[in-house]
Amino acid sequence: MADVREALMSGRNSEGARVRRPLSPHLQVYRPQITSTLSILHRLMGVALAVGTLLFVWWLAAAASSDAAFALAAGLMGSVVGWVLIAGWTLALWYHFCNGIRHLWWDVGRGFELSEVHATGKLVVAASLVLTVLTLVAGAAMR
Amino acid sequence: MSNPTHSQQAAIMRSMLGRARGLGSAKSGTGHWWAQRLTAIALVPLGVWFVIGAIAHAGASRAGIEHWISGPVTATLMLALIACMFQHMQLGLQVVIEDYVHSESCRVATLLAMKAATALLAILAALSVLKMALAG
């Protein structure tokens, strides 16, 4: 049987002929805006963090396994490649963290005015950048 | 399409359009939504706690990490972090897969693989913490 949702796609064009309606939204015709850009970034950063858990679990399992395993994990994390990965995941974490709080604020029904959405969006970007720099500087100071 | 017979109509009881419009509820949507928010709220303090701990132990030796993780409070918070983090991650990845993988067989296979992978990662992480906590 055809997908029952097809029933919602049936329409007529201006000449009266039956057509299958196009799917919406057409993302390519929209100018990127702070709202849509931050929204997709939240998802992208979430997926990036999911990949980052591989390093987290490897580091944890290595610490629980042997000196050799831990030296391998610590060696990667101390290298330039490791620093770039950790810096990227730190930014992803703080962005997803700050924007997640923005989402929770929306969940309690606040902050839906367009001016507020724009202001909190800019605040989230600024806060995640500041927190990322602070985290990386503090981490470098402790090494 | 020929008109459905009486018995077919009895089995369907709804028009195609009615069935499409009636898709409505996502079955277990509320539970999913709520669990994602609950884990998100828990991850706010747990995330801050872990980042501070990770900064404090940046470049630490294996003994230093073992000493940190094996403390009862740290081990408890680490296990809580692992539980919330992997549940939150599984719920989030599920939505991403449901949004972008359109073929049903492919979607189910991807979902099962993702759920298995996240569950195994969570078990490995928790077991690593427990091993250090119980050995120390």
Strand and helix map with partners:
The complex is a heterodimer of chains A (143) and B (136).
Chain A: E1 10-12, E2 18-20, H1 34-65, H2 67-78, H3 80-107, H4 114-142
Antiparallel strand pairs in A: 1-2
Chain B: H1 6-12, H2 16-21, H3 29-56, H4 62-70, H5 72-100, H6 104-135
Helix pairs in contact in B: 3-5, 4-6, 5-6
Structure write-up:
- The complex is a heterodimer of chains A (about 140) and B (about 140).
- Chain A is mostly helical and about 140 residues long.
- Chain A has four helices and two strands, in the order ββαααα.
- Chain A has a single domain (about 30-140), classed as Fumarate reductase/succinate dehydrogenase, transmembrane subunit (3 helical TM bundles of succinate and fumarate reductases).
- Chain A has helices at about 35-65, 65-80, 80-105, 115-140; strands spanning about 10, 20.
- Chain A has a two-stranded antiparallel ribbon.
- In chain A, a hairpin with a 5-residue loop joins β1 (about 10) and β2.
- Chain B has about 140 residues and is an all-alpha fold.
- Chain B has a single domain, classed as Fumarate reductase/succinate dehydrogenase, transmembrane subunit (3 helical TM bundles of succinate and fumarate reductases, Up-down Bundle).
- In chain B, about 80% of the residues lie in helices and about 0% in strands.
- Chain B contains six helices and no strands.
- Chain B has helices at about 5-10, 15-20, 30-55, 60-70, 70-100, 105-135.
- In chain B, α3 (about 30-55) crosses α5 (about 70-100), α4 (about 60-70) packs across α6 and α5 (about 70-100) packs antiparallel against α6 (about 105-135).
- The longest helix of chain B is centred in the last third of the chain and has 32 residues, at about 105-135.
- Chain B is elongated.
- The termini of chain B are far apart.
- Chains A and B meet through α1, α2, α3 and α4 of A and α2, α3, α4, α5 and α6 of B.
